[in-house]
Each structure stands twice: as C-alpha cells, then as structure tokens.
Design brief:
By secondary structure, this protein is α+β, with helices and mostly antiparallel strands. The protein is built from nine helices and eleven strands. Strand 2 and strand 3 form a beta hairpin. It holds the Pfam family HisKA.
Length: about 425
C-alpha cells in the first residue's frame, strides 16, 4: 500500500477542487449557450414557418441564393428528407444533422400534412466546438497553474511540520528536560509541539524512575551477594565433608549466576554508559567449558550425549559475565528440549554454534522467539532469548536460529 504524504494530499485536493470547479463552470457556460441558441433559433424558425403557412407563395423566396441557409419541405418535397427525420413528430429540434450540416428544425402539422422548415446553424455549431476546445485548453492551463501554486503553497504550509520533524529527529535519547513548544511560536504546530513536550516530560519521569531503580538494584543486590559469597568461602574452608562441598559449590554457582544476571541487566539498562561494562577480552572456550562442567549434572540426568569442539582462539571484547549468561541461556534451552538426544558445541575463530537433536521449534513460532515474554514452554518467562538478542544487538553480534519441529535446533553466534 502506497504511503500518501500530506503534501501529496494537499496537491491532490487542490487538483480535484480546480477540476470540478472548472468543469462545472464550462458545463454551465455551454448549457446556457445551448439554451440561448435553442430559444433564439426556435423563435426565428417558428416565426418564419408561421409566415409561410399564412402565405405559401412566400416559399418561393427561399430559393434566393442569399437565403440558402433555409430549407423548406412540404408535400412531395418531404420524401427527399431522410426517413428518421420524416418520422419525427411535430415540434422543435435543435442541432439536427443533415448532409454533414447542422440545422434547427421546426415541424408543424397543416391540414393533415407535415411541414418542415430547417435553418442552417452549422457556423454556430462550429463556434460552439471551438468554444469547447478553448474551455478544455483553459481548464488544462488552469489545472497546471493550480498544481504549481498548490505545490508552492504546500511547501509553505508544511514548512513548520518539516521544522518540527527535523527538531524531533535531532533529539538524542541521552537528552533530558528538552522542551520545544516555544520554538514554534503561535503557529498551529505549537499545539503538536506542546503535546510532544508533555510526552517528553512523561518520558523524563519514567527514565528517572528507571535510573533510580537501577541504582538501587545495583547497590541492594550486589551487597547481599557479596555477603553470601564471603560466607560460602568460610563454610567451604571449615567443612571438608564431600556432601557439604557439593552444596557449597551449588550455592557459589547460583551466586555467580545471579551476579552475572545483575551485571547483564544493569548493562542493558545503561546503554549510554559503556565504560563500566566494557570488560574483556573474554575467551569463549573457557566460558563454554565452565558452563559444561557446571551443567554436567543436568546433562547426565537428561541422558544427553555432548560433543564439544571449541576453538581456544575465539575471544571477544566483552565481560565474561555477559558471555556466560548468553551461552548459559542457549545451553540450558538445548538441554531442556533434548532428552536422550545429542548436543554439539562447535566454534571457529569468529563464531560459535550450538546444535541439538531435540524437539525443535515450530515454523510459526520462529519469527517471535526473540520477543520479550514470548514462550512456548509451560511456565516459561520468555526472557532468555530476548536477553541474548539484546546483548548481541548491543555489541553488534548476530544470532541465527534454524529449527524444525521434531528435528532439533541450531543456534549460531557470530562475533
């Protein structure tokens, strides 16, 4: 569907108005002319036929070459007329064509016979056609001039709109407290600018609340996690029992994952501040091996055969916590959907691929898998792949997912 701009609509409306007005004017002018001709010629012909009927001897005067625009038919002469004219009932007829000429025809009944009197109006008809051609040419000229003027007028009318568009386009997401209504004076656009200002004000309040929450979350969540990690270190040092050590290891892993998630969330909520979260370089193979070791219990419990071939040269300029949370989400998804199947993790110098032989993804669901809160898993939140996609977009990485229901899924990250 084609997009029609406001400028296009203004010009189109002007063209329609001018065309309709010109057509009505020209049509009215031609109609008035035709009615005047019918009334004038009708009176002339009617008067002449009355004279001829009153004194038939005057009919011979019509043979005068100076009166060759008149044709009079009565009695046997009527047979020389075309059959369609002979069949006409008594009355007045304007612009009857006969022998390539136009006539005004008057038919009257006299003593049971029809009398025909025709007056040649071909010159008037030619003038009418000439007038029609002039009117059509005039309408075309007027339309062209109107379109040109409408184009100039549209540019003038839309100039404030363009200024508003440029002003809004130039706004940076980092700018706060920007108000633009005063820049547009008393023009109608100022009402739109005022509405934009109201929206910007609400956005400013929203961003302030989000920043306050982010700052509070950063402090309030990191502090108890640090305490927990410190307590885990003490417990691990004082309890050599294997069962306790395994529990401590799980607690430490959970704390590490929570800390990674907090850093990722803060990173994505503070996109204008990259310096805090740049980090790196991070060796992807190390993160992958660590995740495989951490999730070994889940992999064994699901009866999954795992194959890992990761290039140790694959490194990225990003915090290890972000890479870990990305691979963790992808690997957990593969484990959850590949019971008694196989998972392959492969990489080269610039990409990493995780393939499984699990249940796969239906073709209808593939376009929406990165949407926030969209999930096909009962009880799922739909945040995992969305978080992975946002991190990839933040760093300019690409993620490609190919899948077929019942045949498995392959996820490829290109760094």
């Amino acid at each position: 569907m084609k997009v029609k701009t406001l400028r296009y609509r203004l010009i189109l409306v002007t063209a329609v108005i001018v065309t309709v007005t010109s057509t009505l004017f020209a049509g009215g002018l031609l109609l008035i002319k035709q009615q005047l001709e019918e009334a004038t010629f009708g009176k002339i012909v009617s008067r002449h036929i009355d004279i001829l009927l009153a004194d038939p001897a005057n009919a011979d005067s019509l043979d005068n070459p100076l009166l060759n625009e008149w044709q009079y038919y009565r009695g046997d002469d009527v047979q020389r007329l075309p059959a369609d004219i002979q069949a006409l009932p008594p009355g007045a007829y304007h612009s009857i064509k006969l022998d390539k000429r136009h006539y005004h025809l008057q038919i009257v009944s006299d003593a049971g016979d029809k009398v025909y009197l025709l007056y040649d109006i071909s010159d008037w008809e030619e003038q009418e056609h000439t007038l029609l051609a002039i009117l059509l040419a005039g309408m075309l000229v007027v339309l062209i001039v109107a379109l040109y003027l409408a184009s100039k007028a549209a540019d003038s009318v839309l100039e404030p709109v363009r200024r508003l568009t440029q002003r809004l386009t130039g706004l940076s997401p980092k700018q706060r407290g920007v108000r633009i209504e005063a820049e547009f004076g008393d023009s109608d656009i100022s009402q739109i600018a005022a509405a934009v200002d109201s929206y910007l004000e609400r956005i400013d309040h929203f961003v302030d609340r989000e920043r306050s929450f982010t700052a509070a979350a950063s402090h309030e969540l990191r502090t108890p996690l640090s305490v927990m990690i410190g307590a885990v270190d003490i417990i691990e040092a004082d309890c050599p029992q294997p069962a306790t050590q395994r529990a401590v290891t799980r607690i430490r892993r959970a704390c590490s994952e929570m800390l990674a998630f907090i850093e990722a969330a803060l990173f994505l909520s503070r996109e204008e501040d990259r310096t805090i979260y740049e980090g790196g370089p991070c060796t992807v193979s190390n993160v992958a091996e660590q995740l495989v070791a951490d999730l070994k219990g889940d992999i064994d419990a699901a009866g999954i055969e795992l194959s890992t071939h990761v290039d140790t040269a694959l490194t990225v300029q990003a915090p290890e916590s972000l890479v870990k949370i990305m691979l963790s989400n992808l690997l957990r998804n593969a484990i959850e959907h590949s019971h008694h199947g196989r998972i392959d993790i492969n990489s080269d110098g610039h990409s990493l691929e995780i393939g499984d032989t699990g249940s796969g993804i239906a073709e209808a669901d593939l376009p929406r898998i990165f949407d926030r809160s969209y999930t096909t898993k009962p009880g799922g939140t739909g945040l995992g792949l969305n978080l992975v996609k946002r991190i990839c977009d933040r760093y300019g990485w690409t993620i490609d997912i190919t899948s077929k229901a019942g045949a498995g899924t392959t996820v490829k990250l290109t760094f």
